[in-house]
Amino acid sequence: MPPSPVPTVALAHGARMPRLGLGTWPLDDRTVQGVVEQAVGLGYRLVDTAHNYGNERGVGAGLRASGLPREELFVTTKFNKNSHSVRGVRRAAEQSVRRLGVDYLDLLLIHWPNPGRDRYVEAWRGLIELLKAGDVRAIGVSNFKRAHLERLLAETGVAPDVNQIQLDPRLARVQVRAYHAQHDIVTEAWSPLGAGTGLLDDPVIIAIAARHDRTPAQVVLRWHLDLGLVVVPKSASPARLAENIDVFGFTLSDGDIAAISALDRGAAGEAAALDSDTFGH
Ligand SMILES: NC(=O)c1ccc[n+]([C@@H]2O[C@H](COP(=O)([O-])OP(=O)(O)OC[C@H]3O[C@@H](n4cnc5c(N)ncnc54)[C@H](OP(=O)(O)O)[C@@H]3O)[C@@H](O)[C@H]2O)c1
What we know:
There is one protein chain. With 281 residues, the chain is of the alpha/beta class. The chain has one domain (8-271): NADP-dependent oxidoreductase domain (TIM Barrel). 42% of the residues lie in helices and 15% in strands. The chain has eleven helices and ten strands. It has helices at 29-42, 56-66, 86-100, 120-133, 146-156, 174-182, 203-212, 216-226, 238-245, 254-261, 266-272; strands at 8-10, 16-18, 21-23, 46-48, 74-79, 105-110, 136-142, 162-166, 186-190, 230-231. The strands form two sheets. The chain has an eight-stranded parallel sheet with strand order 3-4-5-6-7-8-9-10. Strands 1-2 form a two-stranded antiparallel sheet. Helix 3 (86-100) crosses helix 4 and helix 7 packs across helix 8 (216-226). The chain is globular. It starts with 7 loop residues before the first strand and ends in a 9-residue tail after the last helix. The site of NADP nicotinamide-adenine-dinucleotide phosphate has 27 residues, from helix 9. Residues 23-25, 48, 111, 142-143, 164, 190-196, 200, 215, 217, 232-237, 240, 243-244 line the site of NADP nicotinamide-adenine-dinucleotide phosphate.
């Protein structure tokens, strides 16, 4: 198999994470297996799943079918709110390991903070224990706002390796990214292509793509990478899987990056997105 073109980023607790990976929601066990196998063949090494996606078995089957040694892969999964306790996190990790058919996880995330339950700090303590025991290589959170992160740091003194949040040029999350940068937290973008909401039809993106002889999706992914983010675009199409990983052979100009960044809707965009103070599973 040819080497992966995807560079890695060093995480705070020592692991290295590919800067681009495969999103797997909403693929089911049956479909995801072939998609994962194809993706690994194209050079993807990071696969993003979750207990909630109901596809960890298929993801694991695809990884095994790829034939690549486990240590060359980077497997991320996430657990739900009913696991928000020290024991619950250990059990969730064991169950994900079993469903995936792997012997360890690279990165385990609290899927949503669910502050109404007020248990995410306990969940975080559970993740810290798994990290100390060497059962996971990196620990993180998803959909955490600055206030949630501040509590983790205040109560445990340990910052996440990663916060996976919804982020694209129209929803650029400037403030939380600045907080991440201060605390050595890697920002990972979910729905990096805007998840079919018209971002790829934006005239600014289309014009820049035409100038570089690239596709709108490639330009958007390059913007994320140029900002230093990790991205997990999802595609079930072989052609688009190949297109989405072919983003390491061109660069955007400072002017291109500024024009794309100017699409940010700021507070209005955040107000329209899912609110992790009230939504979560
Ligand atoms: N942590 C969280 O709470 C959370 C929430 C949501 C998602 N996620 C993760 O983030 C991943 C990505 O997010 P997402 O799937 O919502 O959105 P996305 O990756 O931004 O967009 C996926 C959509 O774009 C299409 N697409 C992919 N590549 C394309 C290309 N080159 N050109 C045109 N269209 C393209 C896909 O269709 P085709 O499949 O037909 O190509 C699919 O409809 C998920 O799969 C999941 O792993 C995490």
